[in-house]
């Protein structure tokens, strides 16, 4: 299994990262994607990527950390991506979040600049959303964005999910589906094709049901897979095989060039 979204570069994993990775492997999780959030984090991610061959990285500017230096950061991002083309599988984590006190216009400017950069570099994107599906879809359409990507921590209706799938996106499925109160998302995920889903944790955030208040870790992908298997009335092995294949189709160009679903 693959954790397609975990922030293993965050300080909270500094002291025991090796053990966290060993625990994940013991739970059947053997590959990890660390999305980027800030310019400071990009170097840490590149260092981790060098140390652990089964870690993939994406670089980007997360909507939680905007500041007055957006233009300079975008220029830096472009330069760092150019210098590390072989090391980077996607541009992200980027997106829009209406629950934080950061002007939406500023978030949209940062999103669009990065979508354009991804389009130029032919990189898929990792998209963060919170009550912003309509805006994300608006910008994806306005830019005629064709590189695809993943909707991180998908929650929402089946129709919204299909709008993204139609535009070449996968849906990142994490701990949300382990909560019975998330009935709309659980119903949507149950009716969506497995060929459009990726597994993720968002570790250290988004703890699964029963683990609230604890640091989330990539080993928990196995429990997300178990819940997804129940929702689709199939086996964990099947879930793991299909979602691993989806991951490779989206993020690994080895032998797959041109196989990304087109928008
Ligand atoms: Zn994240």
Characterization of this structure:
By secondary structure, this protein is an alpha/beta fold. The chain has a single domain (2-251), classed as Metal-dependent hydrolases (TIM Barrel, Alpha-Beta Barrel), CATH 3.20.20. 42% of the residues lie in helices and 14% in strands. The protein contains nine helices and eight strands. It has an eight-stranded parallel sheet with strand order 1-2-3-4-5-6-7-8. The longest helix has 18 residues, at 104-121. The radius of gyration is 17 Å and the shape is globular. The relative contact order is 0.14. The model is unreliable at 255-263 (pLDDT under 50). Bound molecules: zinc ion. Zinc ion is lined by residues 5, 7, 35, 93, 152, 202.
Name the CATH architecture.
Alpha-Beta Barrel
CATH class: Alpha Beta
Please give the count of helices. Answer: 9
Shape: globular
- The main sheet orders its strands as 1-2-3-4-5-6-7-8
Mean pLDDT: 94
CATH fold title: TIM Barrel
* Distinct compounds present: zinc ion
Instruction: Report the end-to-end length measured between terminal Cα atoms.
Output: 26 Å
| Relative helix content | 40-55%
Beta strands, count: 8
Tally of separate domains:
1
**Poorly predicted parts:** 255-263
Largest sheet: 8 strands, parallel
Radius of gyration: 17 Å
Order of helices and strands: EHEHEHEHEHEHEHEHH
Assigned CATH superfamily: Metal-dependent hydrolases
Produce a short descriptive summary.
The chain is of the alpha/beta class. It is 42% helix and 14% strand.
What labels describe this entry?
263 residues, alpha/beta, globular, binds zinc ion, TIM Barrel, 42% helix, 9 helices, 14% strand
């Amino acid at each position: 299994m693959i954790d397609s979204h975990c922030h293993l570069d965050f300080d909270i994993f500094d002291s025991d990262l090796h053990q966290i990775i060993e625990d994940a492997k013991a739970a059947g999780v053997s590959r990890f994607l660390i999305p980027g959030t800030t310019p400071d984090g990009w170097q840490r991610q590149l260092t981790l990527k060098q140390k652990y061959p089964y870690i993939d990285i994406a670089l980007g500017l997360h909507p939680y950390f905007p500041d007055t230096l957006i233009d300079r950061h975008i220029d830096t991002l472009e330069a760092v991506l150019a210098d590390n083309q072989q090391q980077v599988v996607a541009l992200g984590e980027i997106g829009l979040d209406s629950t934080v006190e950061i002007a939406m216009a500023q978030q949209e400017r940062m999103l669009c600049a990065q979508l354009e950069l991804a389009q130029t570099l032919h990189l898929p994107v990792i998209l963060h959303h919170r009550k912003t599906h309509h805006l994300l879809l608006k910008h994806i359409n306005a830019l005629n964005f064709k590189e695809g990507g993943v909707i991180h921590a998908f929650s929402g209706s089946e129709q919204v999910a299909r709008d993204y799938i139609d535009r070449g996106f996968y849906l990142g499925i994490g701990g949300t589906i382990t909560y019975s109160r998330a009935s709309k998302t659980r119903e949507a995920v149950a009716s969506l094709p497995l060929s459009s889903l990726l597994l993720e944790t968002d570790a250290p955030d988004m703890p699964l049901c029963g683990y609230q208040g604890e640091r989330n870790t990539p080993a928990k992908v196995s429990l997300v897979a178990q819940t997804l298997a129940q929702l689709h009335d199939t086996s964990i092995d099947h879930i793991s095989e299909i979602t691993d294949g989806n991951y490779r189709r989206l993020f690994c160009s080895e032998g797959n060039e041109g196989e990304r679903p087109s928008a």
